[in-house]
Structures are given as structure tokens and as C-alpha cells.
Amino acid sequence: MISEVLERVAAALVAARIPYMVIGGQAVLVHGEPRLTRDIDITLGVSLDRLADIVAAAAEAGLAPLVDPQTFVRETMVLPCADANSGVRVDLVLSDSSFERAAIDRAVTVRLGSTDVRFVTPEDLIVHKVGAGRPRDLEDVRSIVARQPRLDRQRVEQALREFEPLLEAPLLERWREAAGSS
User: Fold this and answer.
1) pLDDT tens-digit profile of 36-45?
2) For the whole model, what pTM was predicted?
């Protein structure tokens, strides 16, 4: 069910020429240990000027917005939707920051059914998870580290160093604790 929704959303975003990558729990399933997750989080590499295209692509994929897009997205940069058939929640997160654009460019392609779907790299997923810092996110980091022996730890640490002052959080310390390194 979730794979079918991912396939439809990916196809609609590609058709609308909206750069994207799957993040969150679905990406953890690709890069880390399997866990229960019932929603889909997707970062879109566009700004608010493409909101009409995003709403149209969501409709094409069979998604119905759960909010008034014009108001809610302008305030939060997130378009929460639900799949009309299954009820699966899909959050479309708008971001055209330089980090997110680069992460989308680095995204890896995974074949689901008959569709290529772009997922965040394990390194960029770790940066997202460490930045969030919730216990579930740090467990996800541990599972990604355990399943990804070729992880580019230098890239992770460089990104966390850049974000640490912006988020005013001990990101490197969180990362090292979760990854089991000093």
C-alpha cells in the first residue's frame, strides 16, 4: 500500500518537474533497520512560487490536502495530504535551502515496482535525524550506522558543524553519542 502511494507520488512529481527526495521513516527503511511507519515525508526542492504545481501534482497522485494550501503552506512550508484510497498520510515539505537542494541532487534512486523513487542518502538522513534530536530519530541514526559500513562520516560531521550554531544545539555530540564514536 505505502509503496503504491510512493510510486504514484514520485511519478507525479517527476511529471511536474518538481525535484524531491523521500525522507523520514520511509528512508530509514531503505538505509537502516526496518521499523513501523505509516506515513510518507517528502522534501520538495522548490519554493512557494510552485505551490500551484505542487497541489496539482498531489491531486494527480491521488492525494487530497488536509488543510487549505494557500494559508497553511505559506505559514509552515508543509502540505499535509492523505491518499484518497488508503488514507496514508503524505507530508510534502517545501525547501529550497542550499543544503536541501544539494541533498536532493545527491539522492539515491530505489526501484519500487515499476517506478524509480528518489531517497535521501544515508548521510543526509543522519543530518536530518540528528537535527531533530528526538529519541526515535537517534535510534534511527544508530540503525543507519549499523547498516551502512561505507558511511561518509566526514560529510555528516561537516554538515552538523555548519548547522550547530544555526540550531543552537549540540549536534556533533548527539551524532557521536548515537554513532558510538568519540
Assistant:
1) 788 999 999 9
2) 0.93
